[in-house]
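re: that chain from earlier
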Amino acid sequence: MSNLKKRRRSFTEEYRREAAGLVIDTGRSIAAVAKELNLGEPTGALDESEREELKRLRKEVFELREDNRFLGKRPPSSRRSNIGRTVRTDARVED
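^ sequence. v structure.
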């Protein structure tokens, strides 16, 4: 994502009413009217660089979760596995 902030445009109340009227009166979608008025994509849509960053971040999250899942599994430890077990020894005593 760019370090530059996107500057938000402002529109007069009259312009907003006219744009809303186009949507209401013609039955077209907001996106279609916005495109016709050269307003770009509706709020919430991502541009190409943001989609690429989102894809990269999702991949990174997946890989980190896999790493954590792998690291969370402890290998068996001889010390830990013998707790609570009786260890038999040979009862023969040599003199």
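DSSP finds four helices and no strands in the chain.
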